[in-house]
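Task card 7
Instruction: Convert sequence to structure tokens.
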Amino acid sequence: MNSRLAILVKGELHRLHKYNLTSVSVLVALIWGVFLFFLDSSLDTMLPFVLVMDATMMSIMYVGAVMFFEKSESTISTMLVTPVTNSELVLSKVLANTLHNMFASALIITVFMIIKDVSINIPLVVIAILLTTAFHTTLGVFMAYYQKDFTGMLVNVMIFSFVLFVPSVLFLLNVISGPIWEAILLINPIQAGQEIILAAFKDYEFTYKYYFSLSYLIVLGILGYKYFVLPKFQDYAVKQSGV
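Output:
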């Protein structure tokens, strides 16, 4: 990582803390700790679901919130006159949000492991959360380009949740099942994230679905970043600067 990118990532992490998003992550982990302490032990099976939600929906929300705070403070217009490239600006957002979400997920995992003694493969879950968060952060940046305000962003996140997240959760809970749904959900990025996160837990059987999901998130993430997110950033930045 070059020095400029490192400085940008540090700045993004500072903004996440400044806007109290780090505090939100800690609060969420504490809330889960309270629930797990007082409620039924079967709730330890919810950890994959919680991690999927954190790496997908929360990733989009966090990066969207930061970008709208930046908009209100005219941060983007200031960055345009600094000696940094668009790719460095965009990549710093993806890296910082991914690191932040890794921290948030680590807190949640720690709570589950301490209170409910959940067994989990740490290397596999790190890879899974890293890829899933990076992909959905990239998607969140792209979604933020086209929203006039944070309310609009929330509405679109809810639509995204209904279309992609809910079917994935229903499939996880066996509410919907069968080869047709399995084939349809293969192209769902949330389902892909769920598949590779589940691999970190015991009794998971590695099949083509794991390797397809892993490759799908990597390839689609790179293509989306290169051909959609990065090219549109200049237009977004200029529009935010009022030029």
